[in-house]
Amino acid sequence: MQLNVLVQPKAGENETLSKVVVIEHAAATLGALKSVFEQCKLVGYRATRESVAAILGANIDLGGIFLPETDAQGTSCVDLVAEIHRQRPELPIFLRLDANHALDDLSSEIVRAVAGAYAHDDFTALRELIDTYLLSRDYPGEFISAMAEMTREAMQASFRDMQVELEQPYIVKDKIIYGELFSLIPLESSWCRGYMMLQTEEEKILGVIKAKKTQINHPEPTFRHVNAVLGELSNMVWGSFKTKYGAKKVQDGDGQIRVEIPIIVNHARKYISFGSDDPQLCFKYTLIDPHGKLGPISVYQKFIFSLDWAP
Fold first, then answer.
1. What gap in Å lies between CA 50 and CA 235, rounded to an integer?
2. pTM given for the model
3. How far is CA 195 from CA 128, 263, 273, in A?
């Protein structure tokens, strides 16, 4: 679905953005939101109450949702808040309250559903909510640049005669899985502990294998060969990470218990949770066949440092 862009702030090569959905009719509020979004490096996409469900279904890389308590016709948006929360409970919802209203005036269900609310003219409170829920984790530019370059090199080595394009890195709160296939590998050093996840579509990677653009030379490649390609790509990035940042060795018998958090995967919902609400660092790579015989292939890369992060 083509999204109507409200604001697209500029970001440096090593800076991150976050994509948010805006359902708003008040011109003054839209103007103020544009200013706040530019300051916070948020990409704002316009939506309506009729289109938001389709937008949420088609986009897996969102950071949050902004909407008013009532729409332009004076109809309450409270039911829409509940529906959005049911569809994507991991996304923070920021609710603009009507004049002379407070969050306590709403039902307990809605209070639990929203990340926070702000008065119709109190954008200082909104900025505080954004800082708390969307900008609570800082990913240093050096790390962003290094991981992008490591991954790009690994992809160029894994896929012959394919161009690798990279979008602006961004921060996501989403826990939705893209495609049918993902790999998961732990990343750990003296200052971080978590996972790297690669997500893509099986059939498109299979097409690259059949086109003889990988190291696999098999007359009838199957999904197992696709798994091998993604697994090797993950190992190559992990190896580069280990070389640059070092791998933390776990000492046996040191008397310390390592903290672990369950990873929950719901295949039917294409949903994965690492037990943390911390914003995740996401890269989207696109493999392009310069000869035009293969369609573009999207590969999403997410870094989830849910166990330790102190760069």
1. 43
2. 0.84
3. 29, 11, 12
Residue with tokens 């469900």: 53
Three-point CA angle 55, 58, 64, nearest 5°: 55
Q: What letters, b where the CB count within 10 A reaches 16 and e where it falls short, cover 253-277?
A: eeeeeeeeeeeeeeeeebbbbbeee
Residue type, 236: M
pLDDT attached to residue 3: 67
**Beta-strand relationship, 163-166 and 280-288:** antiparallel
The fold adopted by the segment(s) 4-133 is Rossmann fold (3.40.50)
Among all chains, which residue has been given the structure tokens 């998961």? 184
CATH number attached to the domain at 141-309: 3.40.1550.10
**Contact between 75 and 48 (Cβ < 8 Å):** no
Q: Where are the domains of the chain?
A: 4-133, 141-309
Please list, residue by residue across 3-31, b when 16 or more beta carbons sit within 10 angstroms of its beta carbon and e when fewer do.
Answer: beebbeeeeeeeebbbbbbbbbeeeebee
Handedness of CA 19, 22, 117, 90 (dihedral sign): negative
Residue 74: Cβ within 10 Å count: 7
The mean pLDDT values, 10 residues at a time, for the chain of 311 residues are: 77 87 93 93 92 87 93 90 91 92 89 91 90 89 94 96 94 87 91 94 95 93 93 94 78 56 78 85 96 94 93 87
